[in-house]
Amino acid sequence: MATLEDLEARVAALEASQADYRAVLAAVNALAANERDHSLRLDGFEREFVDLRQEMRAGFRTVDEHIAEIKDLIVGRRNGT
Question: Which residues contact 10 (CB under 8 A, 6 or more apart)?
Fold first, then answer.
């Protein structure tokens, strides 16, 4: 039969084990929250990058159109039109 000291030691060990479990669980939850925050920020950066890329492409198309117009004007003047 277990003595009172043995039972108290077992209870203390269980309480310590439970405290360790809670600490690990708290750390995992903190890491998960951090991961969610990073994921949301990354999604925001990706959206901004896609928007910027679309704006740059539109700008390049505009520049290409202007160059084509200038070329037409230069070629037209050379041909006397």
Answer: 2
